[in-house]
Amino acid sequence: MSLTGTGSLSLKKTDLSSDRTSGTYRKVQFAHKAAGGETGINLAAMTLPSSEMPGFVQPTQAELAACQLLFNQRNLTLTSSVRGTLIPFMSYVVGSSTQINFTDSFGTALPGEVFVGVIDGTNRDGVSGAAASSIVATGTLLAGASDFNVGTPFVTNLYPTQQIGAVLVYLDGQLMMRNSGNATAAPSADGNYQEVSSGGGYSNLIRFNIVDNLNDRAVTVVSNGSMVEQPSGSIKATVETLAGQQDAVIQTVAALAGVPTSNFYAAPNNVDMLSFGNSVLALNQSAALKNVSNTFTQPQNIPGKTDGTAVAPGYIGERITWATPPSLQAATTSLSDWTNANIVLTPGTWQIFGSFFVTGTTATSIGAAATTVVQITDASNTVVQNMESQMYIINSGSSALTIGSTVALYGTVSINTTTTYKVRLQKAEAAATCQIYNTAFARSVFYAIRIA
Questions:
Q1: Residue 360 DSSP label
Q2: Exposed/middle/buried for 6, CB within 10 Å: 0-12, 13-18, 19+?
Q3: Strand positions, DSSP E, 120-186
Q4: DSSP for 195-236, written as a single string
Q5: Measuring CA to CA, which residue among 180, 288, 164 is closest to residue 224?
Q6: Distance (Å, rounded) from C-alpha 134 to C-alpha 136?
Q7: Alpha helices (H) along 58-114
Q8: Distances 6 to 244, 253, 337 between C-alpha atoms, Å
Q9: Contact predicate 421/353, CB 8 Å
């Protein structure tokens, strides 16, 4: 877990839809009467609006702390007596579990303005500090074959002193044992199979020691149950401390640079963008867009079209992606094209989607930054429909800090001529190392869907 921007968490996962979270368990309401000119609300030092809200009782600091507001930001509804319901990131950001900061566009509090906050008891973030996924793979090992492709990566040689690792392997209904130390598969090995490494400490292939040249065999591979530890209170306290320090750094950097602090805020935050990016990846991998029925009008009466075939060019639902997939590329301090990361669209209206995995590495000094900028432009290098984002990192230690995250960009374009769209990237700091990926375990996607 690492911080990216103010009050925003960057978590790298492969599945957000099945997450579980600790959350809060009772609704907490607080109120604060502003003197005027405040740039935020300190929940540890609020002024009770006794004349405006007679009989109202503030929650205790212990009750507020239990809400863990920094981790459950979406549980908060903040209302102003003057300006009505406030919009997160547009009107305010949560700096820590005891601090709410107003944005530059909101301004400062008015004299006598009363703010009422309600922290919902039912968690609405949908993201937790830890998540677990399961592996289930079944198939047939043909006669004469020794290799079974699981299809999902798992840790190689987990529990190296045991003969069962990250997965349980069943052959014709019988539980098999891994070779001791995950030794190379051979008839003389002391177990039944080897987990064949695919690189990076992961495997997705089971190789059996003995080949049956006469019979097909049924194979079942399931993940071995394990416990996933939720973040403890001390871990969350540490993260909140870093968030507070980073918030102070951003205020100073913004003042020195002469830019608004909102430049360093993520709206939506990186968890939201990662969730969107994972949804895009899931759609791409399952080929769900071949049978679009809800979002786009299903093509009708196309000669030669049958279920499962690609939508013909020129019809709603047509999908265009890059012709040659790009690979890993480092950013420079000047905006440059990501080689091969381009799509060519014909006249019409298109929905463009981009989900890009980027990393940033700071210099080895406290306060060193790494800013990675990613944008989608046309052939003339003009940014399309505000499709530009950045990942901003500040180092709080003396060693180099590396963080990876998904940057998601999307928008709608209507064009009258054939147009090329491409991906460009840049780093802001010369001493930083910023890269964009399209590799086996760090996928990026870039495509468009015709909607008219």
A1: E
A2: buried
A3: 136-141, 147-155, 167-171, 174-175
A4: EEEEETTEEEEEEESS--SS--EEEEEEEPP---PPPPHHHH
A5: 164
A6: 7
A7: 61-66
A8: 9, 13, 29
A9: no
Domain boundaries 268-450, CATH class: mainly beta
Other Cβ atoms less than 10 A from the Cβ of 5: the count is 24
Which pair of tokens denotes residue 330?
A: 């480092």
Angle formed at CA 340 by CA 335 and CA 342, multiple of 5 degrees: 80
Amino acid symbol at 245? Q
CB 202 within 8 A of CB 166: no
Given 3-state DSSP classes, what are the helix, strand and coil percentages for the chain, each rounded to the nearest 5? 15, 35, 50
Q: Are strands 383-394 and 433-437 parallel, antiparallel or unpaired?
A: unpaired
Name 41's bridge partners.
100
pTM of the predicted structure, to 2 decimals: 0.35
Amino acid letter, 208: F
Structure tokens at 314: 């020129």
User: Using only C-alpha atoms, what is the Rg of the chain?
Assistant: 26
The C-alpha torsion from 167 through 172 and 173 to 179, rounded to 10°, is -40
Query: Burial level of 201, CB count in 10 A (0-12/13-18/19+)?
Result: exposed
Per-run averaged pLDDT (10 residues), the chain, 452 residues: 36 39 64 93 92 90 85 88 91 90 92 92 54 78 92 88 92 93 92 90 91 93 67 53 71 82 60 60 54 46 51 79 90 93 92 90 87 91 85 84 86 91 92 89 88 84
- Which of 355, 374, 364 shows the shortest CA–CA distance to 434? 374
What lies within 8 Å, CB to CB, of 153 at 6+ separation is: 198, 202, 203, 204, 441
The domain spans of the chain are 13-127, 136-223, 268-450
Residue pair 134/18 in contact by the 8 Å Cβ criterion: no
First-last CA distance in the chain: 41
